[in-house]
Amino acid sequence: MKMMYSCQEVPEIASDYLEGRLSWSEWAMLKMHLAMCPPCRDYVEQLGLTVEALEALDEPPSPEVSRDLMAIYHHWTTEQDS
Amino acid sequence: MGSGTPPSSLATEPDDVGAAEAVPAGVPTITVRPGDQALVDRLLGGDESAFAELVASHHDTMLRVARGFVKTDDVAQEVVQETWLAILRGLPRFQGRSALKTWMFRILTNRAKTRGKREGRTTPISALGPLEDADQPALSADHFDASGGWNSPPAAWHDPARLTTDKELRGKLLQAIDALPERQRLVITLRDVKGWSSAEVCNVLEVSETNQRVLLHRARTKVRKALAPYLEASP
To answer: Shortest CA distance to B37 belongs to which of B125, B98, B87, B127?
Structure first.
């Protein structure tokens, strides 16, 4: 039975680890590896930081776009009333 | 977007709002959000702030998804504008059999697929061939020795908080997303930028759970790799 991951395997499962999608045994094997391997800890941490940076990218539409879409809404409410 | 009034092409009654509530076989189902009906009621009652909330939450995502089916940004904008009116016109018939967001994006993808086919782009996301580079490792073999240990371990990142505060790094992040193959770009945008669940992504893009995981994994790996050179050096 497999007891631990190699460093080469860690990047392949790092995203699933961040997603909480590993089985208990996979999770335990990875945690054991990370406890002993600073480079793999760095890798997994950097992937997590990448995901956090992506989450911070979201922005609402520009005022111009919002105005145009609001015109569609007004058009529709008028249509409803008539 | 064009002028402040809707284009005349929007006058046609949408024919895809009912079909938008159907969930395709093989994709996960979603629990209806309790707030959906309240939001629908506000929209039907003419509450502008409800529509503004909907636009703020979904317009940019709709553009990105539409762009996956049509050839240009301009066509994607037209499709999305048409979709907004189709959504509004379909609202009185929304029955809550799917989440409002899923229903909205089904209307969008139905329209975008039709438009994409009409303009000769016949490769909707779910119908594309094998996943891009799915059989490739996250990191190439030369990063590792024969026993699977690191040959060239990842260098530490200096001050990674800059990722969310530094304008240049933000630009690099956007470039890294833009450089991804289409399906990877869409999945990482919906999952990580927009915060969608994997079930929502599978439903709207009609991809399997396994493929969604592979696409997300590949995309995240590439974006981390693209950012690394800028974070390994001191600012």
So the answer is: B98
- Distance, in Å, from the CA atom of A82 to the CA atom of A68, rounded to the nearest integer, reads 21
Q: What ipTM is given for this predicted complex?
A: 0.87
Asked if A49 and B157 come within 8 Å (Cβ–Cβ), the reply is yes
The CA-CA-CA angle for residues B56, B215, B103, to 5°, reads: 40
3-state DSSP call for residue B144? strand
Instruction: Write out chain A residues lying below 8 Å of B231, CB-based.
Output: 46
Q: What is the pTM of this model?
A: 0.79
Q: How far is B161 from chain A (nearest CA, A)?
A: 9
Number of A to B CB contacts under 8 A, please give it. 144
**CB-neighbour burial class of residue B168 (10 A; exposed 0-12, middle 13-18, buried 19+):** exposed
Percent of chain B clearing pLDDT 90 (strictly above): 51
* CB-based contact B119:B47 (threshold 8 Å): no
State how far the alpha carbon of B139 is from the alpha carbons of A9, A27, B217, in Å.
Answer: 10, 20, 12
